[in-house]
Design brief:
The structure holds two protein chains of two kinds. By secondary structure, chain A is an all-alpha fold. Chain A has 29 helices and four strands. Chains A and B meet through helix 4, helix 10, helix 13, helix 16 and helix 23 of A and helix 1, helix 2 and helix 3 of B. Chain B: This is YbdD/YjiX family protein.
């Protein structure tokens, strides 16, 4: 089906491009866009000029939404019409290969929901919270600017190229279009990134649930609820997803409420688990969840988490708009310049960009944009709204996470997000340490905050989820239910994040296992057979063992697991973005779009600068807070001299620090090496394409005429409505019926 | 119930069914019957089984991000 190498540097659009009609600007539309620009500008103005006083979150929303509207209206349109030349006359894979199951033209409004639900997870809720240690401004600027010029561009361009290749995956495109070396490096990158990602997400959950009987009970209950739903869908009423999801969500809410009763009952001790025990449970869960049949646990859990995700995010947006809380965090804290923050070490450049990751530019999206979505897209012109539009929505979720983190007392924020090695384990020591950072909070206030949400302690609940939950409970309780509901909303938010994360742990372990089986299959054939049980068990055990190791280490690390591992996760994610952007840039060059290659080359250059600077500092910095090998040297010297250096409390912990720092340092070096390999190989391919255009081989599917009429954007324009009406189609669009002869 | 409310409810139902994947079976049957109205089709039970089992075989379909 794929037409290898017959087309030579095609002129994009030469095949009967239907240019999106350039609407002449009416005075009304000019007035509207001037107003939108003004709203955004005023929002940024207030954010930039406020000094010392607390401002309303409304300004942050105005700045973000105004910028998104401008970015979508102008920049994504430029990319659609001038760079990619989206072709409304070209049939998509969904139209050509329609089999009614995995390839089928899907209503763009439904596909937007699918794509958004697939790309948005816990990432955009975690990174921005951690980055709030530098104040709300640096994070917000990157979330908004990053998505407009990098993240949404990556998603849209990847979706476009994959759609032109029948939905090929990123790894396949890297191999086909860059070469075998770049392709192999990209595959290895995806695998190692998956391991780190799962470990960090697991750590977020463990830190939120440690010593929290309420949380452990309600999240534990999701397993029997999902099993029930799975059996229901398999045997009782196959395919009735909506009704079983409604039942599931009702049971879930009951589980959250019941968690409160359990926490106050004599069962509380049974559900009070320390972090080490939780890690063992997570590892066991991860293994069994990934070898159990999909229908029993993964599929129903996925339905639950999707319903909760879409519902809660919508509720959160409404809550923020109604409550309009004020931001208590300073716009920029001293940690931004000094680089010695307790949440993560390092200065604003590059570590704010590394930490935020998902909300602004997420490499993982390229895996979704090059898998399922291209097989379902109805019209090529819809690449803009699905690729660019859904990523803007995810960025908006990240902005809400910034708001949630910045409306709580800064003193509380640092109490929750600093590791125990820095602030101690009592409210007194925490209050003193946080006061030392320059944020006053009394021991009583710290204790009261925990009591309000019915937790024994909130100190050092690092990882972002508890902070987000505190902010969300603050907003929700002021809108729905009052202060008495705070504990419910806190645990609701924890549940909401835990659901995503457990789904990702299960799905991610399966993907990792699949990749491993595929690779091992080259050595021993049976591994390729995905139903060969010993292969499945062995590969699952390797993947779970990989992330389980980092999770265990993260919990035991005296320097704080999140502090050590989150930067690695960020670097890994941004590395994957570099791979995706390199593939996109190579394809722009190879497809005769050299003139526009900067659209992905500039974000690529920025991303590489950020990622390599961060890797360099993590490997070579002399500052023991930042450099892994500097840490290793310091603690090794301590061991040699027989001295115990804080925050380690004994020789065992000293050895732990040395081992962890070495492993993390080696991993940083591996990531950096992979980026460099992919980039060099991509540069070689681009250079070859430019110097000898005649030899370019593109694996693009040839043009076939599209018989589908459907609007490009979520809302049909007047012109599109007229077209639909003339063809006798409803708002969802569809195939033009053959004229009756 | 007025026509507008009925229309809105039908629309909402359409989106929920499409979004949740509940409409997948109807789509499959319609697709199979569009070429041959007498075509043999799987039962709903068998179809839903095949659909989840396909995910088992290649877990990259329907992958969720971080």
């Amino acid at each position: 089906m794929i037409n290898e190498g017959t087309r030579i540097m095609p002129e994009p659009g030469a095949t009967g491009t239907q240019r999106t009609p350039t609407a002449r600007a009416t005075p009304q539309s000019v007035a509207v866009w001037v107003l939108v620009a003004l709203i955004g500008a005023v929002g940024w103005g207030v954010l930039a000029l406020s000094r010392g006083e607390e401002i309303s979150a409304a300004w942050l929303l105005a700045a973000a939404l105004g910028s998104y509207a401008i970015g979508y209206r102008f920049y994504s349109r430029f990319i659609a019409n001038r760079v990619l030349k989206l072709d409304g006359t070209r049939a998509t894979p969904a139209e050509r290969l329609d089999n009614g199951v995995d390839f089928h033209p899907t209503d763009r409004r439904v596909l937007f929901g699918h794509h958004f639900a697939a790309v948005a997870g816990a990432g955009p809720l975690v990174g921005p919270v951690l980055a709030a240690q530098m104040g709300y401004l640096p994070g917000t600027i990157w979330i908004v600017a990053g998505v407009i010029f990098a993240g949404a561009v990556q998603d849209m361009v990847t979706l476009f190229f994959s759609t032109r290749r029948d939905g090929r995956s990123l790894g396949q495109m890297a191999r086909d279009e860059i070469g075998p070396v770049g392709g192999a490096a990209a595959l290895l990158a995806v695998f190692t990134i998956m391991i780190i990602l799962l470990a960090v997400l697991g750590l977020v959950i463990v830190n939120a649930l440690g010593h929290s009987p309420w949380g452990v009970f309600s999240i534990g209950m999701t397993i029997p609820i999902a099993l029930f739903m799975g059996v229901y869908l398999r045997y009782l009423r196959p395919g009735r997803v909506t009704e079983v999801s409604v039942i599931g969500v009702a049971l879930l809410l009951l589980a959250i409420v019941a968690g409160g009763w359990v926490a106050e009952s004599s069962w509380a001790d049974f559900f009070t688990l320390d972090k080490e025990t939780l890690v063992l449970w997570m590892i066991g869960y991860g293994f069994f969840a990934s070898v159990l049949p999909v229908w029993l646990l993964l599929a129903p859990r996925d339905y639950l988490s999707t319903f909760m995700k879409v519902g809660t995010i919508a509720l959160m947006a409404v809550g923020v708009v109604i409550a309009m809380p004020t931001l208590k965090m300073p716009s920029v804290t001293d940690f931004a310049t000094r680089g010695d923050g307790p949440v993560f070490a390092g200065s604003m450049f590059p570590f704010v960009f590394i930490t935020i990751a998902c909300g602004a530019l997420s490499g993982f999206h390229s895996l979704v944009a090059s898998g399922t979505t291209p097989k379902m897209i109805q019209k090529e012109t819809q690449v803009r709204v699905i690729g660019y539009g859904a990523m803007l929505t995810e960025s908006f979720v990240a902005v809400m996470a910034v708001i949630a983190a910045c409306i709580i007392e800064p003193g509380l924020f640092f109490g929750v997000n600093s590791p125990a090695g820095v602030i101690g384990t009592t409210v007194q020591s925490a209050s003193a340490a946080v006061g030392h950072f320059g944020f006053a909070i009394s021991p009583d206030a710290l204790a009261q905050a925990a009591k309000d949400v019915e937790e024994t302690t909130l100190l050092s609940r690092t990882g972002g989820a508890p902070t987000f939950a505190l902010g969300m409970s603050e907003i929700f309780s002021s809108v729905f239910g009052g202060a008495g509901m705070k504990a419910f909303w806190y645990h609701f938010a924890i549940m909401f994040e835990a659901l995503f994360i457990l789904t990702t742990v299960d799905a991610g372990t399966r993907v990792g296992r699949f990749m491993l089986q595929d690779t091992l299959g080259n050595v021993h054939k049976s591994f390729k057979d995905v139903s060969w049980k010993p292969g499945v068990w062995l590969a699952s055990a390797v993947v779970v063992g990989g992330w389980g190791y980092f999770l265990w280490v993260g919990v035991k690390d005296p320097l704080g697991g999140i502090n050590q591992l989150f930067p690695l996760f960020g670097i890994a994610n941004q590395l994957l973005a570099a791979v995706a952007l390199a593939v996109c840039t190579t394809l722009l060059v190879k497809s005769g779009r050299l003139k526009w290659a900067w659209v992905t080359a500039v974000p690529l250059a920025w991303d590489v600068a950020v990622t390599l600077t961060a890797s360099y500092q993590k490997i070579f910095s002399d500052d023991v807070k930042i450099g892994f090998f500097a840490q290793r040297d310091k603690y090794q010297t301590g061991i040699d001299a027989g001295k115990v250096l804080p925050p380690a409390k004994n020789m065992d912990e000293m050895h732990t620090v040395v081992t962890n720092a070495t492993v993390d340092g080696v991993l940083s070096a591996l990531f950096a090496a992979l980026i460099i390999i992919v980039l060099l190989d991509a540069a070689r391919t681009c250079f070859k394409a430019v110097s000898d255009p005649g030899a370019v081989r593109l694996s693009e599917v040839p043009w076939t005429e599209s018989k589908i009429i459907a609007p490009a954007g979520l809302i049909a324009t007047a012109e599109e409505k007229a077209q639909l009406a003339a063809a006798g189609l409803d708002g969802g669009g569809g195939r033009v019926k053959d004229p009756v002869a | 119930m007025s026509g507008a409310v009925r229309g809105a409810l039908a629309k909402a139902r359409y989106y929920v069914r499409e979004f949740s994947g509940e409409a997948a079976y109807d789509r499959y049957v319609a697709h199979a019957r569009s070429h041959d109205p007498q075509a043999e089709v799987l039962t709903r039970r068998a179809f839903e089984r095949a659909r989840t089992d396909a995910r088992e075989a290649d877990p990259r379909e329907g992958f969720r991000c971080c």
